[in-house]
Specification:
single chain; 66% helix; mainly alpha; two-stranded antiparallel sheet
C-alpha cells in the first residue's frame, strides 16, 4: 500500500470503496475527529496501569471499526456487510455500559468538580473525553446533513464520553 499518492494535493481524499470527496467533507471531519480522539486515548493509555491500558487499547481498536463505518458513504454502506467488515454492535455498547455500571456501583463518582491535571493520567483522560465529545459533535453534524444508516455510532460515542468522565474521576480517587 502506497501512503503518498499525491491525490490529496488538490484537497481531495477517497472514502471506503473509492468515492472521491473533499477533505473538508463532513464525513471526513467526522472520522477525522475520531482519529484525533483515538490519538488522545493513546496518550492516556501510556499513563495507565496494565488493566486500564488494555481496556483503552480495546476501545482504540473498536474506534477503527467506527471510523470505517463513518468513512463509508451511505450509497456504499451495504458493501461493509458484503465484505464482512466488523461494525460496532450491541455487545460493544454493552461492554461500555457494564464498565460504567461497575464504576458507579463501586465508588462515589461525584464529590465536587475537578480540574484536569491532577495526574498525567487524569489530564489525558479528560483530554480524551473532550476529544470524544468533539468527535460526537462532528458525527451529529454528519447525521444532520446525511442521516446515518445506523444510530449505533451516535449511541456508542455518547456512552463512551460518559465512561471517560468516570474513568478520569476514578483515576483521581485511585491516586489517593
Amino acid at each position: 500500500m502506497k501512503i503518498s499518492t499525491k491525490t490529496g494535493d488538490a484537497g481531495k481524499t477517497k472514502l471506503m470503496f473509492g468515492r472521491d470527496v473533499f477533505k473538508c467533507d463532513q464525513r471526513v471531519c467526522a472520522y477525522g475527529a475520531l482519529d484525533d480522539f483515538s490519538a488522545t486515548l493513546g496518550l492516556a493509555r501510556s499513563f495507565a496501569g496494565e488493566d486500564l491500558s488494555a481496556f483503552i487499547k480495546n476501545i482504540q481498536q473498536k474506534l477503527v471499526f467506527l471510523m470505517t463505518e463513518l468513512a463509508t458513504s451511505n450509497e456504499d454502506f451495504n458493501k461493509l456487510e458484503e465484505k464482512n467488515l466488523r461494525l460496532i454492535g450491541d455487545g460493544d455498547l454493552e461492554e461500555i455500559e457494564n464498565k460504567i455500571d461497575s464504576i458507579e456501583r463501586d465508588s462515589t463518582v461525584f464529590d465536587g468538580w475537578t480540574y484536569s491535571g491532577e495526574t498525567h493520567l487524569h489530564a489525558a483522560l479528560e483530554m480524551s473525553r473532550a476529544r470524544c465529545r468533539a468527535a460526537e459533535r462532528e458525527i451529529v453534524r454528519l447525521n444532520m446533513q446525511t442521516p446515518l444508516p445506523r444510530k449505533m455510532p451516535l449511541v456508542y460515542i455518547n456512552r463512551l464520553s460518559d465512561l471517560l468522565w468516570l474513568l478520569a474521576q476514578q483515576s483521581i480517587k485511585d491516586k489517593s
